[in-house]
Amino acid sequence: MIDHRDVLEPRNKRQHSPPETPEGDSRSPARRDRDRIIYTSAFRRLVYVTQVASPDYAHVFHNRLTHSLQVAQVGRAVAERLAESQRDLTDALGGIDPDSVEAACLAHDLGHPPFGHTAEEALNEYSEQEIGGFEGNAQSFRIVTKLAFKSDKYDGLDLTRATLAATLKYPWLRNENPANLKKWGAYQSELEVFTFARELGPAEPFKRTVEAELMDWADDVTYSVHDIEDFYRAGRIPLHLLAQTQSTRERLHFFDDVYRRNSGKARFYSRPELEEAFANLLAMYWRVEEAYEGTREQRSLLRFFTSHLIHRFIGGVTIDEKTKSLSINAELRKEVAILKELTWTYVIEAPALAMQREGQKRIIGCLFDVYKAASQTKRNLSLFSPYYRDRLDRTDSEADRQRIVVDLIAAMTEPQALETYAQLMGVRPSSTLEEIVR
Fold it and tell me: How far is it, in rounded angstroms, from Cα 285 to Cα 335?
């Protein structure tokens, strides 16, 4: 018989304050984690960070905020279903708290810089030699443990150990995992709190907690589905042509591109496997025979398609009784994998978006060079808002100064990055005395 007090105490432990519920507060510790994340400016900022493409006058695409909210809904739904249907098995794994999963889902993209992966790669390239680079997941962990705060007595949001562990999609430091050197979950500067979080994790190195696995699956499911919805509506993903069984020309073109792009990956699926999974998925749920025009019928059928996909992917997660570990149906993994490839083929690698990414990289490079130079002399600290100026004043370390510059750029919204760049280049001189970043 499991003593739930022994299970909950280490899970609910915080670095800076006791796990007991404050008087008059009926929320669980993990629910307070969730609420603390929602009320941060880092979370609100995500409304101005794109998911794949910036919205224009004709289309309302998902942004990082709507994406995070949907990831949280899917993650919570899976966690609640497992906690109800397989309670004994989840208890054996240390418990699955839907609030911790939801909180981790809400936090998972906090570290995404303006312009997403383009800026992530640029910031990593510019800062790699001197401070060990930049990684969006590590930045998310840095935000909840150091940069965001709820008290002047300590850094960070003082989240529970369970929630912190659930945010670690990549539970290792830079260059620790030889199987994945491009991704990591925390910077060396957050080693102490990273170690605190990992004390709850599995004994095996580089293995995530079950709640982190659920967060990652919810992320994959959500963006694979809502990207299809966004870009079919925008006329970029021709699902009506891909679904035609009498003509395979478009489907052949699509799979040729998928395997051109993934030819060097040792663990990618075979072409027949993915072709079968894709055909079965469309045959089960796709009901639209023409390009999107926005009719009531098309909107309804599109909602039918996306709703059934989400329901299908939520239902494919179980706890394996033999291995006592999370199990995601192998066929569903294939389906999510091929749905994600649609966005790569028809959107991300499109020439227009490639040109946009090049311009965005130049903007990030300019911001980095200007702020890095300004951080090195007190005479130029007026370029920084009071919050960052105060942080720069309190350090003599060149590495710390560069990390502060990276923090500043990564915390910008896309309108802020564009406006700052325009002012620094003299393209659009400011007519106000407002600070760009507060």
Answer: 13
